[in-house]
Amino acid sequence: MKTLQRKADQAFAAADSVQTALLPGESAAVFLERSARRRLVCDAAGKKQLLVEEPAFSGFVRLEHEGRELYLNASRLTASSAARLLATGRPLFSLGSPAADGGRPNAHPPARPAGAGAWCTTGDRLDMGAAASRTGALMAAVGSALRPGQVVAGIHVSDILREAVYLDSPGTRLEDQAYGVEITAVVVGEDGSAMVSATRYARTLDDIDPEELGRELALLHMASAAGGQPYTGTSVVLTPSATAALLRALANTVLLNPVVGPAALATSLVDEGPRTDGYGARSFDCEGTTTGTVEFIGRDGRQHTLASRRTTLAGHERRVPAPLTGHAWWNPLKNFPLMTANNVSLTRTAGTTADGLLADERCVVTDARTLGVEEFRSGGQLAFRLLAARATDGVPRAAHTALTVEGSAVDFLTSITQVGDTVSYFPGQISAGGAYLEMDLTRITSKAIGS
Amino acid sequence: MAVTTTQQNASAGATEDLLGMAQWAVEQAGTSAQYVQAYAERTVEVRVECLDGEVLATCVEPREGLACMVLQDGRWRHRAFSVAELPSLPRWLGAEGTPAAGEALAWPEPHATGFTPVSPQDWLVQGAAPAHSLRTMEDFTTRAIAVVDTAGVRASGHSRFVRRRVEATVESGGNRYRGLNRWLERGPLAGGAERDAVPQDVARVAVEHAHDSARAELGGRHRTPVVFAPSAAVALLHELVGHALEGDNFAMQSDYIAELRRPGALPASLTMYDDATLPDGYGSYDIDDEGIAGTTTVLVSQGELGDPLSSVRTARRHDYRPTGNGRRRDYRALPLPRASNTVVPRGTEDPAVLLAPSSDGLLHVGCLGAGMINLRSGEFHFAALNCTYITPDGHRVPVRDVSLVGDALETLARVEGTGSDFGGDSVTCGKQGQMLGIGLFSPSMRYSALDWSAA
Q1: What CATH class is the domain B2-215?
Q2: ipTM of the complex in this document
Q3: Which of B427, B430, B453, B455 is nearest to B441 (CA)?
């Protein structure tokens, strides 16, 4: 059976070709990455199909000459296309910008000594043949947590290998290998209606609890049902998927609009680049800066400084120029590395467990859909549409009508009263850790005005 | 076999060599294929981003290569080849024998773009209120394509445009508030030294929007009549109706689309069409990305649905009329049925009369932002920008971070007026990961009631 193989040598060959093609006086930094995946798709009847994605390496070249720099978007860069990419960019070099100060100190110690080889999240690899023989048991485990009328329509078992390399003219040479396993289960009503799905990610298949995934799917399927009674209380519990969606939107917002007016929080928002069970695990960012663990927003509500070569995002710590923190992200649709978070999560509050949060009758939010895109919102305010279900001890009873909540990032963070353990990191441009958590909606419930 | 390059001048006629490449690719296919399409592209995008009168960063993105789409034994296959990967194309197409050693493919050299960005200092707004920051993004594209297929298509096209976006930020009470504006130029002179607008004027509007956002005080959830400004009106219809009429979506078994197809689902006052031939449309083209001439397609005529927009694949699969709407971000992506420019014709009502508030007031939406519609259920949510609330007694109050939420069919039934004004805009629209430029043209339109919230 086809397995996911390391192909970083191809990326290094392309990056070396860039260096070879430089003219006297030029220098370059090259960042290339790819994400390969095997996906075993299994339907309810047990029919299986293996899909393999093996994309090429893409990224960017930062070309420097006489104190100026130009970014070259390097899609599918290979050793044979490197010189052509530089030839396309050189005539446009006069349009470039003054080179950014890249010589600033790094906020984190190196993940490993120079020349020590690749940084890897794990040496384990999934035996997909063995996993294929377990799909029936996995579906049964997910199904054991469902309610009458809910059935498992299928399960996907994937493994994902994300590779990244960074190489520059002064001689820096870095390689990351982040590997993990993902399960996605699909649940429908017995009549085939209302399809929902949920995902878990971990270093190995054995680290994923399919019954816990089934519990969330039972709640999600119930909450997706039409109709339902309005929820008139103020305290809700969010499932891990809903928490991850909330965190991702919060992180995106405070990256554009840093927190002002700090307030005491029950938890803190942390970002851990080298977290090995995180979907966004990396030891260096796209500028070759070492990543680390950062208290993004502390319990005092203060946002701490993040910095890349071109951007310093200062909340309350206004230290400029700040040390580089390993938060640069290459978006091929943008013009230079932007600020991002790697693996964000909320710290657990003392004594909080998922079972404790779900005990007795609760309103459980299973889906938090952001209304609008942070980039287009003018003032850093957030709004969400929440799908929720009434549940007793985690067992769904009935759907609630959707809730709308809105407020600033600080309003949402101060509304969080308890947080359980992070169950899984969820994919996305920002990998977000999902946990069961409790929120008090008093500050963020949208008030109806007019008729 | 090796890939060599040939020197090329920058004229619009410089697509002959791409036609040759596409022809070569089609000739590599065996005779067993039912259909073969080759698409060759040479695009250079130059993006210049400035902050407060200084160049912040410049990014150059060449996109050049060839894509093949094959229908064989009833199955479609698609693969993209970068220039370096072209030698492997014959084998993928099943060509018999091995190409002669040393046989060369003449892929054209990159050529001069002739792009002259706005001087960073020219964006700065003289005499504007202090304490604002100005970020500008200038995206220049020169794009040459050629398509050859086994159904007789042999066509090429060249386009050149520059889209400029301005983001002004003001600080008030420690918070930051943004205002946006944009400006599109297209045609043979786009991106040159001569311009059809003054950068400072474009930036000034963004600064004004930012100050309006900072002044906004109204929050909470509301249900009021809503008037969409020209182009914002068609932006909503593009989302609620236009996407549903894209061939692949139209064929979907969905409750929403089934209801939309039911006679009487749309108001009789509604007419909208897709027009690839507009001279100033962001989505205009002479040929689509499958070599079919761009044209005008009626989407809705007086409440009756017209043709779905089709690509070659969707037209063959669902027996739709070919409309020339196969579009792709670049050679790496599969062509999908997409809008070019969505247009609602001018109405008869006085735009000032449309703005008459009800006893609950009225929301005026200047620009529709990002959001989505669920094409299964018809549920939608969109951000709205540049909004003003008109109180029942006629006072105008700026509102920011507006979210519109609702059910598409219920919303469409509430159209109650179409203005005699008209305006256009250029937006980017995403589908299956492909962001494309779309033109939007319409008059103002009034809805009797919509749910919205402001933060």
Answers
A1: alpha beta
A2: 0.91
A3: B427
